[in-house]
Amino acid sequence: MEHYLDNSATTRVCPEAAEAAMRAMLECYGNPSSTHTKGREAKKLLDTARKQVADALGCKSAELYFTSCGSESDNWAIIGGAEYMMRKGKHIITSAVEHDAVRKSMEELERRGFEVSYLKPEKSGAVSVEAVENALRADTILVSLMLVNNETGAITDISAISAMLKKNKSQALLHTDAVQAFMKLPFSAKTLGADMISVSGHKLHAPKGIGALYISEKIKLKPYIHGGAQENGRRAGTEAMPQIAAFGEACRIAKQGFKENCAHLETLRALAVEKLSANIPELVLIPGGASHILSISMPGWRSEVLMNFLEAKNIYVSRSSACKKGGRSHVLEAMGLDAKIIDGAIRIGLCRYNTEEDIDALVNALTEARNTLAHR
Questions:
Q1: Rounded to whole angstroms, how far apart are CA atoms 330 and 125?
Q2: 3-11+257-372, which class in CATH?
Q3: N or C end of the chain, less CB within 10 A?
Q4: CA distance 260 to 301
Q5: Is 69 a catalytic residue?
Q6: Which of 14, 69, 323, 351 is catalytic?
Q7: What are phi and psi of 196, to 5 degrees?
Q8: Tens digit of pLDDT for each residue in 187-240?
Q9: How big is the CA angle at 176 (ends 170 and 251), to the nearest 5 degrees?
């Protein structure tokens, strides 16, 4: 039996989303920009999907732009936002625990002459409001911080940071990478108060290759891809209708069962913590907060060895971010964790399809690994 516990890397596509994609490919296959019947049919599907995602995010359809993934959304928001504001300053605030899509966008901006402040997280893994306020300057034009950390599940209070920026009358735009938070944490574009929000489909049972960027209607970013007039002239290219239709349907399903799914994930996470702690006394629970991510460590055992042991039993987890291959986690290093804890860390990603049987299989396998694998 398969026990897939790497849902923070990606999720399996839900049947409803798969059916929506299939319909877009085989029935409603016109180009949304075409004016004939099949084109109008596709345009209606595009509008419906956009509204479904916008409703889930709590924004207007006109403020939501489809992208190819969360990384593209981050790139567009950060580089586009900096260019939009560059006449007012060149200082940007981010953190040392961001996803590489953010970190490498910042590195690109530094090459272009921008100055970036990388804030250290608290022991919880989150970035405090006070740290952002202390780093704020008159020439700060952009703040980019993730809502839920993709490795630890640590939650940064974006709403409070937004309120602080307003209180200080800061000119800075606020962007948040909400890829790991979308439809896992209760929030909306309005409650967050961010000017730009990045989300992705494959973290919530839609296919890979589709994301979205919320851009407040008060901001007029330049087009990210030049060409046709798609996405209100801001991102050229014929829309990826199968992925878009699936994303919309996945958002509809997720929103429909949101409260039940959150409660289910909280129960599973608590069960995992309880049973792992009881069976493996030396186990370290790495600080987090989100109900769908649990980061743990077995100091003295290498994470890659543990992963291989689990995989042999059809149990799938990850070391840290699936996008990061090799090397220690920059997130755990920034949190100041001991090297042995970092080297023995694994991430467990939960979703609504996981069960108590998955947790029991994980606990039993890690207990066996502890008792049989060489301690290093």
A1: 12
A2: alpha beta
A3: N
A4: 36
A5: no
A6: 323
A7: -140, 135
A8: 999 999 999 999 999 999 999 999 999 999 999 999 989 999 999 999 999 999
A9: 140
DSSP 76: I
φ, ψ for residue 361, nearest 5 deg: -60, -40
pTM of the model: 0.96
From 112, 171, 96, select the one nearest 136 (Cα to Cα).
Answer: 171
Structure-token pair, residue 42: 């596709």
Pick the CATH number of 15-256 from 3.40.190.10, 1.10.3210.10, 3.40.640.10, 3.90.650.10: 3.40.640.10
CA-based torsion, 67, 70, 75, 76: positive or negative? positive
DSSP code, position 225: B
Residue-wise pLDDT tens digits, 84-114: 999 999 999 999 999 999 999 999 999 999 9
Please give the structure tokens belonging to residue 347. 């991430």
Q: CATH 3.90.1150.10: which residues of the chain?
A: 3-11+257-372
Closest to 134 in 3D by CA, of 107, 106, 170, 102: 170
